[in-house]
Every structure is written in structure tokens, then in C-alpha cells.
Specification:
Blueprint: H1 2-23, H2 37-41, H3 44-50, E1 76-77, E2 87-93, E3 104-113, E4 117-122, E5 124-125, E6 127-129, H4 144-157, H5 160-164, E7 169-171, E8 188-190, H6 197-202, H7 207-210, E9 213-214, H8 216-221, H9 223-230, E10 244-249, E11 256-260, E12 266-272, E13 279-281, E14 284-288
Parallel strand pairs: 1-2, 5-9
Antiparallel strand pairs: 2-3, 3-4, 4-14, 6-13, 7-8, 10-11, 11-12
Length: about 290
Amino acid sequence: MKIIAKLIAPVLAAVLAVSLCACALPGDPDTGQSTSDSEKTNDPETRANNTTASATQGKTDVPDPTQSPDDPPYAVTTPDNAKAGDVVVFGAYEQDGNAANGKEPLEWLVLTVNSDSLLLITLYGIEHMQFHSSLEKVTWETSALRNWLNNDFIRAAFSDAESASIKKTTVIAEKNPEYPNSPVGNDTEDKVFVLSVQEAESLFADNNARKCSPTAAAVAADPAAFSRMSSKPWYAKHPFGCSWWLRSPGMYKDLYVSYVGKYGNITGGGQVYLSGTDLCVRPAMWIIAN
């Protein structure tokens, strides 16, 4: 019997070792379960990135902006030396949620450069607000957001000299390529605007480049909304992510407006613009470079 026990003991030890190794196989860091390929493709961010074409020349690629604004992963340059993909400072706006310490410098991503001008968009979502505030037919031309950007925002963010450097631009009323029958209104002359679906597609390299973080002040404007989003498991991967308005109409003609989602995906079908569907705002504008 002692001889049999000695023979069986090594076998039992080997079986136990294999069992322990199996328990230590790599898997999901939160649950300890392994993730299959099919489960990976069901992840919302993976699906969003898979629907976007690879980066093409002329599109802006940026460092991942989902990090905290307190630790920016980029260097800031001056407008006269800037190229597409750089970050410049222009103007100032309340962003940290503490009005007592004054406004913070506004950081802008350079989308494109021509001979004397830069097309800029704010690096962060600086406000969390509605596209329009009343139940009526609306396009970018008649929206409350357009009125706010070209009046209250300009006065709050820029000095007289800075405002003079912002070019008045013909903002084209482009049709939504997914919903061409949705009314777009007329072209407008604006200093500040938000991008169209086509511009959001052509001026960024991919979904990752379109991702945006809200400022602390934007979160403070509607903390309950961001609390609801952060409670979702997939949102925890990007705790600083936010969706932001475009100006193109959505699928329900005068009631929906397109936007960029938290994963950087363009949602042409849009979101209803009334209360309860506030999104972040990323102003865009052309400035004189020199």
C-alpha cells in the first residue's frame, strides 16, 4: 500500500498544479473572466472604431484627450507657428468650475491651416447645453446655440483685439448625407460655429481623434447628466468623455440634430434638441494666424 501511495502522490500533485494554472489564466481585469473575440466585438467602443475608415492624409490626429485636463498629453504652440494637430491658446473662459479664481486660458485644436488663417475647435467641451430651447422648427440658422456662440460666448471669451482676429465665415448649410430630405436652412455669416457632419468626418483622422472631454465647469452645469452616464459600465473606460453637438439636421427633420458620441462616432440620426438632451459644445472658428 505504501508503494501505491508513493506512486499516486506525484500524479495528484500534477493534477493540482494544472488546476491552479487554469484559475490564473488572463481575462477581464475587473471580473477575472476571459474575454472571447465575439465579446470584444460587442464592446461599444470597438464597434464604433471599426465603423471608421483608417486615417487619411490631411485629417487631424491628436493625442487621446480622455485624460484629465490637469495633465494634458500635448504641447502648446503659438498661432503663427501652428500646424494641423497642434494646440494653441486663444482667449479665456471659465473652465475649472471656480469663478473666484478667474477664467482659464482656452485651448484650441488646430484642424487645418491656410495661407493666413487657422481653423480651430476647442480641445474640450466647454459647455453642456441645448441646441435650441423651444418646441419649434429649427436649423442652425435659427438655433439658440448659434445665437449664444456669436454673442454671449464671444463677449465672455475674447478681448476686443482677439475678437477682431476672428474671421467672419460663410457657414454652409450642408445637407445631412444620411438624411438629405431634412431641412438645413440657409447659409449664415458667423464668427463662431459648430461643425457639420461632413466637417467632423473630413477634419479628423478617426473616432479616437474626435473624442472629447468636458471641462469641470461643463460637468457642473448638469452634474446629474454626467452621473447617469458614469454609472454605465462601458462609460467607466472613459470617465472624462462627452458627446458634442454638430449643426447638421438629424433624421426627424426639424426636431433632431446630429452629434459626435462619447466614443468619437458621428451620429447622423441625431438627438432631439429639447430639454433633457443637452450635449457638450465645442466652438469652432477661423482666426488670422499672424
